[in-house]
Amino acid sequence: MEPHNNERIAKLEEQSKGHTEHYDRLYEATLRMEGKLDALTMNFLPRAEAQEMFRSRDEDIKEIRDELREQRNDSRNSKATLPAWFAVGISIVVAVLTLITLFL
């Protein structure tokens, strides 16, 4: 019975070497994956920072839109007064021409 047990032990040792090699390869692969994952996560913003960045960007966009609306309203107001200023100019020219004709 002893030789039979020695054969079984030898087979088990050989299988355990195979499993140990497989485990070592898996462990090395895991270490490589962890290194790649660490490098990958260093390139991305944390969620809180991304949210703050987007919130800040949205506020800037809102401010720019408000400024554009104000400029459009100012432009519309100045365009509305343009005919009145044109009428004032014409009346000044007419007054000057009238004065010239009266004194000549």
Number of strands: 0
Oligomer: single chain
Please tally the helical runs, counting DSSP H or I stretches of 4 or more residues: 2
The whole-angstrom Rg is: 44 Å
Task: State the shape.
Answer: rod-shaped
Q: Which whole number gives the mean pLDDT?
A: 86
End-to-end distance, in Å? Answer: 148 Å
Strand portion: under 5%
What features would you describe in this structure?
This protein is an all-alpha fold and 104 residues long. The protein folds into 2 domains: 44 residues; 59 residues. Helices cover 94% and strands 0% of the residues. It is rod-shaped. The mean pLDDT is 86.
Care to give the gist of this entry?
The chain is an all-alpha fold and 104 residues long. The protein has two helices and no strands.
Secondary structure layout:
Elements: H1 2-42, H2 47-103
Core attributes:
single chain, 104 residues, mainly alpha, 2 domains, rod-shaped
